[in-house]
Design goal:
This protein is of the alpha/beta class. It is about 35% helix and about 20% strand. The protein has one domain: Rossmann fold (3-Layer(aba) Sandwich), CATH 3.40.50.150. It has ten helices and eleven strands. The chain has a seven-stranded mixed beta sheet, sandwiched between helices. Helix 3 links the parallel strand 4 and strand 5. Bound molecules: zinc ion.
Length: about 325
């Protein structure tokens, strides 16, 4: 196996501490012990040139229905997992980290006093047009010292953090008693990602690069699975209180979703769409591609060696 260039930082697995090995691309590496995958891809937040590649109108249309249903499901999962923390008559507070266009904040506002943080000026402008005012900046620097929340959500955002463990540890310290962290993110064991890996091994890099969002303003830095992300959380003293999955594909809007990344290749997009129809049927029986984990601060861990089960009440 090739060694990684010396310029690559953070060579150990954030989940289990094992040294990472070379992966399926020069920028990709993986953990031989727990299956964690990481990437060294450039981030171009607020870089206009990268943003020009994104056709916002197509994206909005492509993802609206799926997003709305997934967000309702996510809010239901959060509601079931958290214990009531807000005082009588007060709405619980939710903070969405990496709020993007503010879609989740807007939908969460039906149940919470919801706020979001978003460093990208273009995304905040889109949100503002829809009436959602997002805070400018990065988490946690843009919070006030005494701010606490009942729910902090990382809605497709923790996989973009350079240091996800650090972000989760800080977020846990920002919860009110009984509060939870809610994460939804791509699952490395999802059927589509595993297919993309297989294709990459066969020399077809397009789907794999697309899953990592290579060339996008904010590409993915990590691919976790349920097991190794729970393990990472456990190392931070966070209990996993709910594990679930969201649907990643629906027939409606699939073409627009495929075309979003390749605005000048309609024929290719059409063929891809046709090729994915049988896959859609198969996906109903396969592993989902978006995982949800709800975490809450547990009792201080005395020994994190192997605390797999048995300790959880209720
Ligand atoms: Zn590992």
């Amino acid at each position: 196996m090739r060694a990684f260039p010396h310029t690559m930082s953070n060579p150990d697995c954030p989940c289990c501490g094992q040294a990472l090995e070379a992966g399926l691309a020069t920028w990709h590496r993986q953990c031989p012990a727990c299956g964690y995958e990481g990437a060294q891809l450039a981030i171009a937040i607020n870089a206009t040139e990268a943003h020009q590649r994104v056709d916002e109108a197509v994206r909005e249309q492509a993802l609206h229905d799926l997003r709305h249903e997934n967000f309702e499901q996510l809010l239901d999962i959060i509601d079931r997992a958290r214990t009531l923390t807000a005082a009588d008559g007060e709405r619980p507070k939710l903070l969405d980290v990496g709020a993007g266009y503010g879609w989740f904040v807007r939908q969460a506002a039906t149940r919470f006093t919801a706020e979001g943080i978003e460093p990208d000026a273009g995304a905040r402008a889109v949100a503002a047009r829809a009436g959602v005012v997002l805070r400018d900046g990065f988490f946690p620097q843009c919070l006030e010292p005494d701010e606490r929340f009942d729910v902090i959500s990382f809605n497709d955002s923790i996989e973009h953090f350079d240091d996800p463990a650090g972000a989760l540890a800080v977020a846990a310290g920002r919860l009110r008693p009984g509060g939870v962290l809610a994460l939804n993110l791509p699952d490395a064991q999802g059927a589509l990602y595993r297919l993309a890996r297989l294709l990459r091994r066969l020399g077809v890099s397009g789907p794999f690069d697309r899953m990592w969002q290579v060339g996008m303003p904010s590409p993915h830095r990590h691919y976790f699975n349920r097991g190794n992300l729970s393990r990472l959380a456990g190392r931070l003293g966070l209990e996993t209180v709910a594990v679930d999955e969201l649907q990643s594909l629906r027939l409606k809007g699939l073409y627009a979703r495929i075309a979003y990344a390749r605005p000048h290749a309609a024929v290719t997009s059409g063929l891809l769409w046709l090729g994915m129809l049988p896959l859609l049927a198969a996906l109903r029986w396969l592993h989902g591609d978006i995982m949800v984990l709800v975490l809450r601060p547990g009792p201080p861990a005395r020994n994190a060696a192997d605390s797999g089960d048995g300790a959880l009440a209720g």
